[in-house]
Protein backbone atom coordinates (compact mmCIF):
# COMPACT_ATOMS: atom_id res chain seq x y z
CA UNK A 1 0.00 0.00 0.00
CA UNK A 2 1.26 3.48 -0.84
CA UNK A 3 2.87 5.15 2.22
CA UNK A 4 1.53 8.60 1.31
CA UNK A 5 -1.99 7.15 1.27
CA UNK A 6 -1.50 5.67 4.74
CA UNK A 7 -0.29 9.01 6.11
CA UNK A 8 -3.11 10.85 4.36
CA UNK A 9 -5.77 8.63 5.92
CA UNK A 10 -4.24 8.62 9.40
CA UNK A 11 -3.62 12.35 9.67
CA UNK A 12 -6.28 13.94 7.46
CA UNK A 13 -9.09 11.78 6.14
CA UNK A 14 -10.11 9.49 9.01
CA UNK A 15 -11.79 12.20 11.16
CA UNK A 16 -14.04 13.34 8.28
CA UNK A 17 -14.41 10.07 6.35
CA UNK A 18 -17.89 9.10 7.59
CA UNK A 19 -19.22 12.65 7.20
CA UNK A 20 -17.73 12.92 3.71
CA UNK A 21 -19.50 9.75 2.51
CA UNK A 22 -22.92 10.59 3.94
CA UNK A 23 -25.47 8.34 5.62
CA UNK A 24 -24.14 5.01 6.89
CA UNK A 25 -27.63 3.53 6.76
CA UNK A 26 -28.08 4.51 3.11
CA UNK A 27 -24.72 3.02 2.17
CA UNK A 28 -25.59 -0.24 3.89
CA UNK A 29 -29.03 -0.31 2.24
CA UNK A 30 -27.49 0.10 -1.23
CA UNK A 31 -24.84 -2.53 -0.51
CA UNK A 32 -27.48 -4.94 0.74
CA UNK A 33 -29.42 -4.50 -2.50
CA UNK A 34 -26.23 -5.03 -4.52
CA UNK A 35 -25.11 -8.19 -2.70
CA UNK A 36 -28.61 -9.66 -2.74
CA UNK A 37 -29.12 -8.86 -6.43
CA UNK A 38 -25.95 -10.76 -7.31
CA UNK A 39 -26.72 -13.67 -4.95
CA UNK A 40 -23.71 -12.86 -2.78
CA UNK A 41 -25.25 -14.48 0.26
CA UNK A 42 -23.80 -17.11 2.62
CA UNK A 43 -24.39 -20.80 2.10
CA UNK A 44 -22.43 -23.61 3.79
CA UNK A 45 -19.26 -21.52 3.99
CA UNK A 46 -20.06 -18.25 5.77
CA UNK A 47 -16.52 -16.83 5.88
CA UNK A 48 -16.01 -13.44 4.20
CA UNK A 49 -12.97 -11.20 3.95
CA UNK A 50 -13.24 -7.43 3.41
CA UNK A 51 -9.95 -5.91 2.24
CA UNK A 52 -9.72 -2.15 2.70
CA UNK A 53 -12.81 -2.24 4.90
CA UNK A 54 -12.80 1.41 5.96
CA UNK A 55 -15.63 2.25 8.36
CA UNK A 56 -17.54 -0.91 7.45
CA UNK A 57 -19.89 -0.23 4.55
CA UNK A 58 -19.27 -3.71 3.14
CA UNK A 59 -18.38 -5.53 6.36
CA UNK A 60 -21.53 -4.53 8.22
CA UNK A 61 -23.73 -5.38 5.23
CA UNK A 62 -22.14 -8.82 4.88
CA UNK A 63 -22.52 -9.50 8.60
CA UNK A 64 -26.19 -8.56 8.39
CA UNK A 65 -26.57 -11.04 5.52
CA UNK A 66 -25.15 -13.80 7.72
CA UNK A 67 -21.43 -13.86 6.91
CA UNK A 68 -18.70 -14.08 9.52
CA UNK A 69 -16.49 -11.20 8.39
CA UNK A 70 -12.84 -10.32 8.83
CA UNK A 71 -12.27 -6.63 8.03
CA UNK A 72 -8.74 -5.49 7.11
CA UNK A 73 -7.59 -1.88 6.86
CA UNK A 74 -4.37 0.10 7.27
CA UNK A 75 -6.09 2.97 9.10
CA UNK A 76 -6.75 2.36 12.80
CA UNK A 77 -9.08 5.37 12.96
CA UNK A 78 -11.39 3.89 10.33
CA UNK A 79 -11.38 0.48 12.00
CA UNK A 80 -12.30 2.11 15.30
CA UNK A 81 -15.34 3.66 13.62
CA UNK A 82 -16.19 0.30 12.04
CA UNK A 83 -16.20 -1.41 15.44
CA UNK A 84 -18.41 1.34 16.85
CA UNK A 85 -20.90 1.01 13.97
CA UNK A 86 -20.85 -2.81 14.03
CA UNK A 87 -21.75 -3.32 17.68
CA UNK A 88 -22.01 -7.04 18.45
CA UNK A 89 -22.18 -8.21 14.83
CA UNK A 90 -19.84 -10.98 13.69
CA UNK A 91 -16.98 -8.82 12.44
CA UNK A 92 -13.35 -9.24 13.41
CA UNK A 93 -10.84 -6.52 12.51
CA UNK A 94 -7.20 -6.66 11.46
CA UNK A 95 -5.08 -3.50 11.37
CA UNK A 96 -2.44 -3.61 8.66
CA UNK A 97 -1.52 -3.46 5.00
CA UNK A 98 -3.61 -5.68 2.73
CA UNK A 99 -0.38 -6.45 0.84
CA UNK A 100 0.88 -8.18 3.99
CA UNK A 101 -0.69 -11.45 2.91
CA UNK A 102 0.35 -13.29 6.08
CA UNK A 103 -1.93 -10.93 8.04
CA UNK A 104 -5.15 -12.25 6.51
CA UNK A 105 -4.38 -15.50 4.69
CA UNK A 106 -5.42 -19.03 5.65
CA UNK A 107 -9.17 -18.46 6.08
CA UNK A 108 -10.55 -20.10 2.87
CA UNK A 109 -13.35 -17.53 2.54
CA UNK A 110 -16.41 -17.98 0.35
CA UNK A 111 -16.29 -14.27 -0.49
CA UNK A 112 -13.60 -11.60 -0.72
CA UNK A 113 -14.53 -7.96 -1.21
CA UNK A 114 -12.07 -5.20 -2.09
CA UNK A 115 -14.24 -2.18 -2.77
CA UNK A 116 -14.42 1.59 -2.45
CA UNK A 117 -11.31 2.38 -4.53
CA UNK A 118 -8.95 0.30 -2.38
CA UNK A 119 -7.11 -1.17 -5.39
CA UNK A 120 -6.10 2.27 -6.67
CA UNK A 121 -4.26 2.97 -3.39
CA UNK A 122 -1.63 0.33 -4.19
CA UNK A 123 1.87 1.21 -5.40
CA UNK A 124 1.53 -0.19 -8.91
CA UNK A 125 -0.43 -2.35 -11.33
CA UNK A 126 1.93 -5.18 -10.40
CA UNK A 127 0.85 -4.94 -6.77
CA UNK A 128 -2.79 -5.03 -7.87
CA UNK A 129 -2.07 -8.16 -9.95
CA UNK A 130 -0.30 -9.78 -6.99
CA UNK A 131 -3.25 -9.05 -4.73
CA UNK A 132 -5.79 -10.47 -7.19
CA UNK A 133 -3.71 -13.65 -7.57
CA UNK A 134 -3.43 -14.04 -3.81
CA UNK A 135 -7.19 -13.62 -3.46
CA UNK A 136 -7.68 -16.42 -5.97
CA UNK A 137 -5.37 -18.70 -4.00
CA UNK A 138 -7.08 -17.89 -0.70
CA UNK A 139 -10.69 -18.32 -1.82
CA UNK A 140 -12.46 -21.61 -1.24
CA UNK A 141 -13.42 -23.45 -4.44
CA UNK A 142 -16.56 -21.88 -5.81
CA UNK A 143 -15.83 -18.67 -3.89
CA UNK A 144 -16.22 -15.23 -5.40
CA UNK A 145 -14.40 -11.93 -5.41
CA UNK A 146 -16.02 -8.49 -5.67
CA UNK A 147 -13.93 -5.51 -6.75
CA UNK A 148 -15.00 -1.89 -7.15
CA UNK A 149 -12.94 1.19 -7.92
CA UNK A 150 -13.08 4.56 -9.59
CA UNK A 151 -12.33 4.54 -13.31
CA UNK A 152 -9.45 7.00 -13.67
CA UNK A 153 -8.45 5.65 -17.08
CA UNK A 154 -10.44 7.99 -19.33
CA UNK A 155 -8.93 11.43 -18.76
CA UNK A 156 -5.73 12.36 -20.64
CA UNK A 157 -2.47 13.02 -18.81
CA UNK A 158 -2.27 16.68 -17.80
CA UNK A 159 -5.99 17.03 -17.11
CA UNK A 160 -6.91 18.71 -13.80
CA UNK A 161 -10.41 18.31 -12.34
CA UNK A 162 -11.83 19.67 -9.07
CA UNK A 163 -14.86 17.82 -7.67
CA UNK A 164 -17.11 19.01 -4.81
CA UNK A 165 -17.67 16.03 -2.50
CA UNK A 166 -19.59 17.13 0.60
CA UNK A 167 -20.66 20.26 2.44
CA UNK A 168 -22.69 21.50 5.37
CA UNK A 169 -22.97 24.83 7.17
CA UNK A 170 -19.50 24.52 8.67
CA UNK A 171 -17.46 22.35 6.28
CA UNK A 172 -16.77 22.05 2.56
CA UNK A 173 -14.82 19.12 1.11
CA UNK A 174 -13.28 19.17 -2.38
CA UNK A 175 -11.05 16.77 -4.33
CA UNK A 176 -8.54 17.96 -6.92
CA UNK A 177 -7.40 15.33 -9.43
CA UNK A 178 -4.29 15.83 -11.56
CA UNK A 179 -3.95 13.08 -14.16
CA UNK A 180 -0.55 11.67 -15.08
CA UNK A 181 0.43 8.84 -17.41
CA UNK A 182 -0.07 5.97 -14.95
CA UNK A 183 -1.23 7.69 -11.78
CA UNK A 184 -3.54 10.38 -10.43
CA UNK A 185 -2.37 12.93 -7.89
CA UNK A 186 -5.25 13.50 -5.46
CA UNK A 187 -5.41 16.58 -3.24
CA UNK A 188 -8.21 16.54 -0.68
CA UNK A 189 -9.17 20.04 0.49
CA UNK A 190 -11.24 20.81 3.57
CA UNK A 191 -12.64 24.24 4.42
CA UNK A 192 -13.96 24.51 7.99
CA UNK A 193 -15.45 27.39 9.96
CA UNK A 194 -15.47 26.00 13.49
CA UNK A 195 -13.61 29.03 14.87
CA UNK A 196 -15.86 31.57 13.15
CA UNK A 197 -13.47 32.03 10.22
CA UNK A 198 -13.03 29.71 7.26
CA UNK A 199 -9.83 27.67 7.51
CA UNK A 200 -8.30 25.65 4.67
CA UNK A 201 -6.43 22.38 5.20
CA UNK A 202 -5.27 19.97 2.52
CA UNK A 203 -3.40 16.72 2.03
CA UNK A 204 -2.17 14.92 -1.06
CA UNK A 205 -1.53 11.33 -2.12
CA UNK A 206 -1.31 9.24 -5.30
CA UNK A 207 -3.59 6.64 -6.86
CA UNK A 208 -2.89 4.29 -9.75
CA UNK A 209 -4.99 4.26 -12.92
CA UNK A 210 -6.67 0.90 -13.65
CA UNK A 211 -8.77 0.57 -16.80
CA UNK A 212 -11.72 -1.86 -16.98
CA UNK A 213 -9.92 -4.00 -19.57
CA UNK A 214 -6.83 -4.13 -17.33
CA UNK A 215 -8.86 -5.31 -14.35
CA UNK A 216 -10.56 -7.97 -16.49
CA UNK A 217 -7.16 -9.22 -17.63
CA UNK A 218 -5.88 -9.38 -14.04
CA UNK A 219 -8.83 -11.53 -13.02
CA UNK A 220 -8.50 -13.85 -16.02
CA UNK A 221 -4.74 -14.24 -15.59
CA UNK A 222 -5.25 -15.18 -11.94
CA UNK A 223 -7.64 -17.97 -12.99
CA UNK A 224 -11.00 -16.38 -12.20
CA UNK A 225 -14.12 -17.07 -14.24
CA UNK A 226 -15.73 -13.72 -15.07
CA UNK A 227 -19.24 -12.96 -13.89
CA UNK A 228 -20.67 -9.47 -13.63
CA UNK A 229 -18.72 -6.48 -14.96
CA UNK A 230 -19.78 -2.84 -15.17
CA UNK A 231 -18.02 0.46 -15.87
CA UNK A 232 -20.94 2.88 -15.57
CA UNK A 233 -20.93 6.34 -13.97
CA UNK A 234 -17.17 6.39 -13.50
CA UNK A 235 -17.06 3.27 -11.30
CA UNK A 236 -15.72 -0.16 -12.25
CA UNK A 237 -17.40 -3.16 -10.60
CA UNK A 238 -16.32 -6.75 -11.22
CA UNK A 239 -17.52 -10.04 -9.76
CA UNK A 240 -15.64 -13.25 -10.57
CA UNK A 241 -15.60 -16.85 -9.36
CA UNK A 242 -12.96 -19.42 -8.47
CA UNK A 243 -14.22 -22.56 -10.16
CA UNK A 244 -14.67 -25.69 -8.09
Description:
The protein has 244 residues and is α/β, with parallel strands linked by helices. The chain contains eight helices and eleven strands. The strands form two sheets. Strands 3-2-1-4-5-11-10 form a seven-stranded mixed β-sheet, with helices on both faces. The chain has a four-stranded antiparallel β-sheet with strand order 6-7-8-9. Helix 5 links the parallel strand 2 and strand 3.
Low-confidence stretches: none
Order of strands across the main sheet: 3-2-1-4-5-11-10
CATH domain fold name of the largest domain: Rossmann fold
Rg is: 18 Å
Any idea of the CATH class of the largest domain? Alpha Beta
Counting DSSP H or I runs of 4 or more residues, the number of helices is: 8
Instruction: Provide mean pLDDT, rounded.
Output: 95
Structural classification: alpha/beta
Query: How many structurally independent domains?
Result: 2
Assign the CATH architecture of the largest domain. Answer: 3-Layer(aba) Sandwich
Structure summary, number of beta strands: 11
Distance between the termini: 31 Å
Amino acid sequence: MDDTARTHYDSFLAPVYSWMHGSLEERIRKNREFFSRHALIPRDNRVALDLGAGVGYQSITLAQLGFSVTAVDFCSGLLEQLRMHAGDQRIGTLHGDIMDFALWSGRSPALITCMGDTLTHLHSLQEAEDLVRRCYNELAFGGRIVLSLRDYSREPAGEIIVVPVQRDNHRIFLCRFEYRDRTVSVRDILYSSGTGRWRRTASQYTKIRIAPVTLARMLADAGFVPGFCSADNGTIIAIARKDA
